[in-house]
Amino acid sequence: MTQSVTLGVDIGTSSSKGVLVGANGAILATAVRAHEVSRPRAGWVEMDGRIWWEEFVAITRELLAAVPDAVAAAVGVSGMGPCVLLADENDEPVRAAILYGVDTRAGAQITEMSAELGDEEIARVGGSLLTSQAAGAKIAWVAEEEPEAWARAVRLFMPASWLARKLTGAYVLDHQSASQTTPLYDIEGEAWHNPWWQRFAAPIEQPTLGWAGDIAGHVTAEASALTGLVEGTPVIIGTIDAWTEAVSAGAHEVGDLMLMYGTTMFMVFTGAETLRTPSMWTTAGAFAGTRNLAGGLSTSGALTSWLKGLTGTDYPELLADAAASGPGARGLLMLPYFAGERTPIQDPDARGVIAGLTLDHGRGDLYRATLEATALGVRHNVETMRAAGADIRRIVAVGGGTQGQLWLQVVSDVTGLVQEVPQITIGASFGAAFLAASALAERDGATPPVITDWNPVAQRITPNPELAALYDELYDRYLRLYAGTRDVVHELAADQRGA
């Protein structure tokens, strides 16, 4: 006897993850494939897009083998973004995929496009100014810098849409991802902005637009043979992992703010109105009728991983040492801009700074300062969102970093925010499976699942009011430290590029 399940797969920065979920939301099996990005030059972050499909196939086969009586009734897909994977007429990548805002190569194109189109008009049409997150500027970079690759480019993909293409043959992109191809998308019209598409991306066929939970198509015979999925199985369009992760935790309602603790830190506020501010990203929501104000730190888990490798220490030891160091890290203050910074300073030439070091400081102090630096970055983003009009009513924490109680507590203490942590923190793959189950229910006229039934709140992290004054002072110093070191740091960044 077989059991009907949904499959969710997410292509992340450091790994691809898959999950099989039963009808009641129970996780039946998980699978992971680790991978690494390529950094061929300073500011460049790439990945071979063919790996995304190879890992999807391997994960799907592993999951189906782990639960022999399972039949995937629907497939959910998700992935990091916004990415730029350009492919030829045979769907072969013309070059490695250029990743999201951590890739800062398109600075010249951002300057040129902003001068030509005007910042005010760019924000009016697309919601956001051009930053390292803007996929449209990276498309322009390929056109200008790699004419041989550009001459072969016919289609534009991101990880989720690449999987949908491989599975179903559909050439689609969700509105949320499209809204991050600035300046190629009209956020109020919810459509491609044809004048600027023709100006900067004319050779590329426009993907058909839909919403994250819409059905893109059905598994083809060829994809069935490769993956073991039943031919004709519906596949959703999917979206960028941060938005799918918000779905996984029920943090996608109006007034919700999701904090995603991962390799980078990502924040998504959901509202009903289009909010614009120069230092954040205004996007379409994952679902019709919603808008997002989003932000992200370029490093969070990547920074803790760096320090772990540097000290040759495991995480439990570092966390114990950091707890012993105590609030304020014994007078250390760090700027977490080790890979430049995205929001709200939008400074790809920012770099990490550690201030206050003495011979008395140890690894625990450094690790504590690292946790506090990411928390101060979150506070900077939250305060910028609120200044833009975001009515934040509820904060939900998701991602692998939520397994560290100290990090969660530091973020609450620094920001003054209560955080809700869901029971299941497996992430975007779980959200993709939920969207697939919802799409299947809608297609069949059945009662759709409810995410709070699948994934209830497990704990609430409340700030310690006794630390408010300490962290208010540290936040002021954090802002002043960046302002005071910016010029020198920019000179050092220029030297690094030259080297």
Any overview of this molecule?
This protein is α+β, with helices and mostly antiparallel strands and 499 residues long. The protein folds into two domains: 3-244 and 427-454, 2-Layer Sandwich (Nucleotidyltransferase, domain 5); 253-424 and 464-499, ATPase, nucleotide binding domain (Nucleotidyltransferase, domain 5, 2-Layer Sandwich), CATH 3.30.420.40. Helix content is 40%, strand content 21%. The strands form nine sheets. A five-stranded mixed beta sheet has the order 3-2-1-5-15. Strands 18-19-17-16-22 form a five-stranded mixed beta sheet, with helices on both faces. The longest helix has 31 residues, at 468-498. It starts with a strand and ends with a helix. The mean pLDDT is 96. One of its GO terms (molecular function) is kinase activity. Keywords: Carbohydrate metabolism, Kinase, Transferase, Xylose metabolism. Residues 258-439 form the Carbohydrate kinase FGGY C-terminal domain. Belongs to the FGGY kinase family. Residues 6-243 form the Carbohydrate kinase FGGY N-terminal domain.
How many domain units? 2
Mean pLDDT figure: 96
Main sheet: strand order: 3-2-1-5-15
User: What would CATH call the homologous superfamily of the largest domain?
Assistant: ATPase, nucleotide binding domain
CATH architecture of the largest domain: 2-Layer Sandwich
> How large is the share of residues in beta strands?
15-25%
- Identify the CATH class of the largest domain: Alpha Beta
**Total of DSSP H or I helical runs spanning 4+ residues:** 17
Q: What's the alpha carbon Rg, rounded to whole Å?
A: 22 Å
Instruction: Work out the number of β strands.
Output: 24
Q: What's the overall geometry?
A: globular
Helix amount? 25-40%
Reported for the largest beta sheet, the result is: 5 strands, mixed
Distance between the termini: 63 Å
Oligomer: single chain
Q: Which consecutive residue ranges, at least 5 long each, have pLDDT under 50?
A: none
Helix/strand-derived category reads alpha+beta
Q: In CATH terms, what is the fold-level topology of the largest domain?
A: Nucleotidyltransferase, domain 5
Organism: Microbacterium keratanolyticum
Domain Carbohydrate kinase FGGY C-terminal: 258-439
InterPro entries: ATPase_NBD, Carb_kinase_FGGY, Carb_kinase_FGGY_CS, FGGY_C, FGGY_Carb_Kinase, FGGY_N
Domain Carbohydrate kinase FGGY N-terminal: 6-243
